[in-house]
Amino acid sequence: EIPELNKDNVRMKDKDDVLKKIERIITDGKQKLQIITDFDRTVSKYHHNGETTKSSYCVFETIPTLPKEFTDGAQSLYNKFRKIEDNPNMTVEEKIPYMEEWWDLNEKLFLGLPYNEKEIAQAIIDSEVTLRDGTDSAFLRLYLSEVPVLVFSAGLGNVVSAILSHYNIKYNNVHVISNFFKVVQGKIIGFEGTLLHVFNKNQYAIESCDYFKELAPRENVILMGDSLGDASMAEGVQGNGCILKIGFLCINIEQFLPQYLEKFDIVLLDDQTMNVFNAILNKIL
User: Fold this and answer.
1) The pTM is what?
2) Quick check: is 40 catalytic?
3) Ranges of H-type helices in 147-274
4) Whole-Å CA distances, 93 to 66, 89, 181, 200, 254
5) Residue 229 contacts by C-beta under 8 Å, 6 or more apart in sequence?
6) Smallest Cα–Cα separation from 149: which of 130, 170, 132?
7) Catalytic residue from among 14, 40, 133, 270
8) Would you list the domain boundaries of the chain?
9) What are phi and psi of 50, to 5 degrees?
10) pLDDT of 112-155, one tens digit each?
11) In the predicted model, what is the mean pLDDT of residues 28-53?
């Protein structure tokens, strides 16, 4: 029995099925487990002290030396496309072309900008990005138990990695798949590989097969995310293991809840902690 699953803000479509999955993961043990998690507003909080937590993109945009054309352009794209991403009345399929357009236009804005790691590190401090309560202890225990953690982010990989390092949780069992800058002579000339957005993580997961092949014996997964697109991050996992999906839902809760319950086994409503995840880890590790 896991008391954290009985809290008021926990929703499950089928509690028996959830408990069966957890039991199987416990029985198979930590050597068969891997973790796949989104970063922005999954590892980081959705809000803290009444303020919405900045995403990795927004952290980058706070660098004071960036040209005004960049920050204004990024803000106007955000204003246009974010409400489409968060629209509960559109299907994921309907949103995909808009997300592709957003990311393509965004990439063009970055071209030619200077890349400076010190400025990114300072922007992280200034932005006060806060991780969910209990994240540090979860990551430490996963490291000590040698359980691989994939941080799978449609944000800016350089910023996500720097935030993990800032909080001393980028252990050697943590691997980041994200949008990493291609830098030549100190200037950003684009991104490495295919652009990763919130709704193409399934395709990207399948294309990341080298990572998942190496972890083939680890066929059980605990997956965490805050977007419907995050539910498909485990599609590259090998074998017929058990995949337990935890979804964090913080906005438009009533409208989105039915869709989240279809995609995630456990849905946590406006929860800014890792309490449920840690309670499950307590049983496995």
Assistant:
1) 0.96
2) yes
3) 157-166, 201-207, 209-214, 253-263
4) 34, 12, 27, 10, 21
5) 92, 154, 197, 198, 199, 200, 201, 202
6) 170
7) 40
8) 3-46+130-282, 51-126
9) 80, 0
10) 999 999 999 999 999 999 999 999 999 999 999 999 999 999 99
11) 97
| Cβ-contact 115, 180 below 8 angstroms | no
Nearest to 65 by CA among 118, 135, 8: 118
SS3 of 39, please? Answer: coil
Give CATH for domain 3-46+130-282.
Answer: 3.40.50.1000
The string of DSSP codes covering 148-164 is -EEEEEEEEHHHHHHHH
> What topology is assigned to 51-126 in CATH?
DNA polymerase; domain 1 (1.10.150)
Which one of the listed residues 38, 226, 265, 271 is annotated catalytic? 38
38 in active site: yes
Tracing tokens 């800014």 back to the chain, one arrives at 272
Give the pair of three-digit tokens for residue 195: 């652009």
Encode burial over 242-271: b for 16+ CB neighbours within 10 A, e otherwise. bbbbbbbbbeeeeebbebbbebbbbbbbeb
